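Section 5.1 Outputs to date
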Amino acid sequence: MSALRSSGLCSSPSGTLLPLSPPTLSLASAANIACEALLDNPPDLVCPITHELFKEPVINAAGQVYERSAIEAYMRRSLMDPVTRMQLHPTSVLTPVWIVKSRCLEYREGTARRCVEQAYRSPGQGAVRYVRRAVELCGDANFTVQGLSRGCIQYAQSHPSSAHDDVCMHLFAAGLLAAGLKDEAAAVYYSLLQGGSDRAQQAELLRQCLSCWSSDPHGQPDNATFEKLSHFVVLQSTFRWGKIIDIVQDAGFGDGFALRLCEELILRQARQSGSDTDTAEWSMQKEVLMKYVQISHQGVATQQQLTDDIVSCLEQQVDQQRQAQQAMQQHLQQQQEASQMSHHTQQPHAKHHQHGRSWHKRRKLIGAVVWGVASLLQRCNVPLRAVKAASLLFVIYEHDRR
């Protein structure tokens, strides 16, 4: 008996050797086995020829069930049953097996749904296997699974290589978000963040993660968003907490967001005062505290620099206004000086004009006098030559006097 037990066998009442019952598995091991079972097809629902799940199962005269297209192609080459090697008649009828078809459809729907759930409940490097498995099960069927978008299915079918796994998971997260599974989509984005190596890509994934929780992506996150993010930070073991703070700053959320996240992580120690804190977690909390002080100091320095810039700008504006006023005053002074010079220049012209007018009047008067004298001299029989001479002398006298 001991020899049988050492070989892993036991004797049944009929004398047949049976394997011993396996030892009791832990819950974690049982869960892992159940998850791995999702990736394999049940043997009784697989075609012996294609080794794939049935789509149109049929039974032949030998009592074996095959995929219709596969057995028809086989019978065109041979009339011997592939499994039993029984000779088949050329006109033998292939009868549909509806119960097997129904079981296959039920298995496809249930397993695809559980694969999607497993992909977002335990996101990580192995999650893409469950996404591709769900795509395999429902890709050609006429049913949909919540969270698995048609775009993700088409991309996974057209890009089977593992080099496209990241894009496939991005589409999977977008499908979860479109289906209203916000927390699940955030978990997938955060798992992609942990696997990313580029800082810019990590910052973009963090923005997408937070957009799943916030109704207004451009608004200020609420308390629930900070609690969920701090919960993710504590649960993950890929990055130190200070690294997450750096990614938050790279994502452009601002110093206020980074300080608020630091406060949430630091206050976890106060909330867990009754429980033992891991040494590594305590070390990371001290690192976050140093980040908090550093960001606060940088914020004060930034505000001081901003204040200095504003004061300098105001001083420049005051100087520009002062220079503009001085230029305006100089311009007005130049206009006044030009007006005064123009006034002095116009005065001699006015005097000359007035003098010309007075001389015109005097000339008329002289002409009248000369004419009167000439008439009087003619009446007194004075010669005309003497009259002209007297008139000419009078004109010369007036000209000299003027």
